[in-house]
Design goal:
alpha+beta; Cytochrome p450; Cyt_P450_CS; Cyt_P450_sf; metal-binding; Cyt_P450_B
C-alpha cells in the first residue's frame, strides 16, 4: 500500500512564458533520459511494502539533504561502510565532523578560482585536440570523445597522471560495465566477483600505484598527494580513486553528451548559446542539467525522526527509515519552477530563496557535489568549440541505458559528424 501526500495544484505564472491554458503543462516534455516518468502531485509518498519513503518535492528533498539526522545510503554505502579494518572511509560515505574536515581540506581543488587557474588551459587544449580529431575523422562517437576529455581533466585533479600504459578511460569505464551483471545464481555471483577483482587490480597496478609512487617522490597539488599526507593506505587511496572516477569522470561524460543532443536538436537554443556571454551559457547548461540530472536518485537513511511539511500537513519520517529522493521529480516541482517543468527554458523564474538554476542536480547539503564548477566549465569550453562547427550534425541518435549503481543514464553510440 502506498500513501501519498500531494502538493497543491496552484502555481505562479511566469509572465515571460506562455499564458496558462487548459493543457496539462507538466505533460509536455523535452526530457530524453528518465527511466520512468515521475507521477505528478506525489510530493511525499510512503511505500509500506518496501518500507521506503519517496520524495519528489524540492523543499522536502532540500530539507532531507541538509538535515543532520541522515546518513548516506546510496552508491552501496551500507556495504562499503561495513568493510573491516578500514581506517579511512571514502569521502562519499563519511559523515559528521570527519566528513566536514575532509571536505574543507579538499575544497581547494574545486573552487572556481582554482579550477580556472589550474585547469582551464588544460581543458582548452584537450578540447582543441578532440575537435581536430573529429575534423579529421569526419564522424565520431561523442560518448567516447567526451569520456577522454572527462578522464583527462578529472585525472589531473585527482592525480591519475602516471599510468603504466594508455587506456585509463577504458579502465574507468569498465567499473560501470554491466555485461556480467545478469544472473542471480552462485556461478553468476562468483563470476561477477572475479571480474570485479580483475578490473580493480588492473586499475590499481596500471594507474593508481604508479601515481602513488610518483607523489611519494614528488608531491603535487592534487587529491592523491593530499591523501598520502593524511596517511591513507594504498587500498584506501584506490577506493577514493574509484569514487572520484564515478563522480568526476562518468557523470561529466554523460552531461556533455546530453547537452550536445539537446543543443543540436534545437537550432535556436544552439544559436543563443554560441552568441551568449559565459554567464548566460552557464545558465543554459544549468537548465539542461535541471531537466536531465545525471544521478536520478539520492538515498539517505534517517538517524532520527525527521519532520516535513506538505500541503499544510506535518509528516514524520521515522528514525532508521530509508529515503529515496527522486531528482527528476524534485527538479520538476511546479511550485518552484513554474509552468512547463519538463521543457528547457533558461532564465525561468524560480519561486523560493537561494535556489540554484540546476536545482538538485548536484545534490545539496554536506554531500553536494564538490566538482560542480569543474563539470560546467569543462562542458562549456568543449561545447563552445564543438557547436561552433557550422556543419556539425547528428549522424546517429544515441542509445540510452541506465546504471543501477549511480541510478543514472548512460548515453552510448552517439555519432556526430561534420561535412
Amino acid at each position: 500500500m502506498q500513501q501519498a501526500y500531494e502538493g497543491t495544484a496552484e502555481q505562479d505564472t511566469n509572465n515571460s512564458m506562455p499564458a496558462r491554458c487548459p493543457i496539462d503543462h507538466s505533460a509536455i516534455s523535452q526530457q530524453k533520459t528518465p527511466k520512468f516518468i515521475e507521477p505528478v502531485g506525489a510530493a511525499i509518498e510512503y511505500d509500506e511494502a518496501a518500507n521506503v519513503w519517496h520524495i519528489r518535492s524540492f523543499e522536502a528533498a532540500r530539507t532531507i539533504l541538509r538535515s543532520p539526522n541522515t546518513k548516506q545510503a546510496g552508491f552501496n554505502a551500507e556495504l562499503i561502510t561495513r568493510i573491516p579494518n578500514q581506517k579511512n572511509t571514502p569521502i562519499l560515505y563519511q559523515e559528521g565532523k570527519v566528513h566536514q574536515q575532509q571536505r574543507k581540506q579538499t575544497a581547494r581543488f574545486f573552487t572556481p578560482k582554482a579550477v580556472s587557474d589550474n585547469y582551464r588551459q588544460l581543458m582548452e587544449n584537450l578540447s582543441d585536440e578532440l575537435i581536430r580529431k573529429l575534423k579529421g575523422k569526419k564522424e565520431i562517437d561523442l560518448s567516447r570523445l567526451s569520456m577522454k576529455l572527462a578522464v583527462r581533466v578529472a585525472g589531473e585533479i585527482v592525480g591519475l597522471t602516471n599510468s603504466r600504459m594508455p587506456g585509463l578511460d577504458r579502465r574507468i569505464e569498465a567499473f560501470f560495465d554491466g555485461r556480467i551483471e545478469q544472473g542471480t545464481g552462485k556461478l553468476s555471483k562468483k563470476l561477477r566477483a572475479i571480474w570485479s577483482q580483475r578490473k580493480m587490480l588492473n586499475f590499481f597496478y596500471l594507474d593508481v600505484k604508479p601515481a602513488i609512487e610518483a607523489r611519494r617522490r614528488n608531491p603535487k597539488q592534487d587529491v592523491i598527494s593530499h591523501l598520502l599526507e593524511q596517511k591513507y593506505s594504498e587500498v584506501e587511496i584506490l577506493t577514493e580513486c574509484v569514487t572520484y572516477g564515478a563522480a568526476g569522470m562518468i557523470t561529466t561524460r554523460e552531461f556533455i553528451s546530453v547537452a550536445t543532443w539537446h543543443l543540436l536538436e534545437q537550432p535556436e537554443l544552439r544559436k543563443r548559446y554560441l552568441a551568449a556571454s559565459q554567464e548566460e551559457r552557464y545558465m543554459i547548461l544549468h537548465e539542461i542539467l535541471r531537466l536531465e540530472p545525471i544521478v536520478g536518485n539520492l538515498q539517505r537513511r534517517a538517524t532520527a525522526d525527521i519532520t516535513l511539511k506538505s500541503n499544510g500537513e506535518e509528516i514524520i519520517i521515522p528514525n532508521n527509515a530509508l529515503i529515496n529522493i527522486h531528482i527528476h521529480g524534485s527538479n520538476s516541482d511546479e511550485k518552484v519552477v513554474g509552468d512547463y517543468p519538463r521543457v528547457i527554458y533558461p532564465g525561468r523564474e524560480l519561486q523560493g530563496d537561494h535556489i540554484p538554476d540546476m536545482l538538485m542536480s548536484f545534490g545539496d547539503g554536506v554531500h553536494r557535489c564538490p566538482g560542480a564548477y569543474v563539470a560546467i566549465q569543462e562542458t562549456d569550453i568543449f561545447l563552445s568549440r564543438l557547436l561552433a562547427l557550422p556543419t556539425l550534425h547528428i549522424k546517429q541518435k544515441p542509445k540510452i541505458s541506465w546504471s543501477d549503481l549511480v541510478t543514472g543514464y548512460e548515453i552510448r553510440d552517439f555519432l556526430i559528424a561534420v561535412d
